[in-house]
Design brief:
- This protein has nine helices and nine strands.
- The chain starts with about 45 loop residues before the first helix and ends in an 8-residue tail after the last strand.
- The model has no long low-confidence stretch (mean pLDDT about 95).
- The protein binds pyridoxal-5'-phosphate.
- Pyridoxal-5'-phosphate (PLP) binds next to helix 3.
């Protein structure tokens, strides 16, 4: 339908196809545990809160536009190259930058039909068309992703583990896929929940960037690191891709306290280990209880569960 408002007439057609992302925020006061956004149940250590308080008096100055200390902390913690990291206002920011840089009108972006809802939003915003690869039994299917590749494909997005299905792609399959996918296509592995995975055959893909320069890994501080409110995430890729993302990002896209808190939380090994153990314990417990109640529960490698109600026959 043509827009009659003159100043909206030339809006990218894709924007009209976007359904606004509804966040998991629940306004009801009496809520015991909010599970809809896969946040961590833990508050950050008190010493980090104190450090943040001290920093607040510098609010009149812009933060470091290059997130230098944060990049150093990430590089050290993950044993990766600092010059190949880009930081963002949440990993959402990095995902948007990727679309902004690499997709355009008349191009296609592949994502999963049971995947993170933000990928089609940023795809449409860039003018491109999302192409959905079907999951197989609610797991990301590399085979189906490959079958959807066309001459117009610019980007492939998938989360590993996948939200909301909790499935993972193991390292062997990942390497095989990266070898087979044409090198002109940007492959984005969104590792928002990678820290929760304990399967030894899993890889977060960071070490694969060296071999596959068209690969971008995105990570977040919003989940296991308990910093969702501060909005901080990062991307790792080849120097050429990072230079492009660095050019188009907002000049001060990560705020002062986010940079500080994120670089400090990375050093809190005990805090992270506790979160992993807690997640395994309660995920298993809830899974068992739900199964006993007759629910079908899909195996999850993240901090969430996909559950099918007993009375639903066709869930797909
Ligand atoms: C798969 C996936 N990627 C990215 C994000 C966004 O994370 P951030 O808070 O870093 O923007 C989420 C948040 O739910 C997610 O589930």
């Amino acid at each position: 339908m043509k827009n009659k408002i003159p100043y909206l007439k030339d809006i990218k057609p894709g924007i009209n196809k976007i359904e606004k992302y509804i966040s998991g925020e629940i306004k009801k006061k009496k809520i015991e545990a909010k599970l809809s956004s896969n946040e961590s149940p833990f508050e950050i250590p008190k010493k980090i809160i104190h450090a943040i308080f001290k920093e607040l008096r510098f609010s009149n100055k812009y933060p470091d536009g290059d997130s230098d200390i944060l990049k150093s902390s990430i590089a050290k913690r993950f044993k990766i190259k600092k010059s190949q990291i880009v930081c963002g206002n949440g990993s959402d920011d990095i995902l948007s930058l990727i679309c902004l840089a690499f997709s355009r009108e008349d191009s296609e972006v592949i994502c999963s039909n049971n995947g993170f809802l933000f990928y089609p939003i940023i795809t449409y915003s860039s003018g491109a068309k999302p192409i959905y690869a079907e999951t197989e039994n609610f797991s990301i299917s590399i085979k189906n992703i490959k079958e959807r590749i066309s001459k117009k494909t610019k980007i492939i997005f998938f989360a590993n583990p996948n939200n909301p299905t909790g499935s993972i792609i193991l390292r062997k399959e990942l390497v095989k896929a990266l070898k087979e996918i044409p090198k002109n296509i940007i492959v984005v592995i969104d590792g928002a929940y990678a820290e929760y995975v304990i399967d030894k055959e899993f890889s977060d893909g960071l070490d694969l960037v060296k071999k596959f320069p068209n690969l971008i890994i995105t990570r977040t501080f919003s989940k296991i690191y308990s910093l969702a409110a501060f909005r901080v995430g990062w991307g790792y890729s080849s120097p050429e891709i990072i230079q492009i993302l660095e050019k188009i990002r907002g000049p001060f896209n990560v705020n002062l306290v986010a940079q500080l808190a994120a670089s400090k939380i990375l050093k809190e090994k005990k805090f992270i280990d506790k979160a992993i153990k807690h997640n395994i314990k309660y995920r298993n417990m809830i899974e068992e209880k739900l199964k006993k109640m007759g629910f079908l529960v899909f195996k999850s490698h993240g901090n969430f569960l996909l559950v099918k109600k007993p009375f639903e026959n066709n869930f797909n």
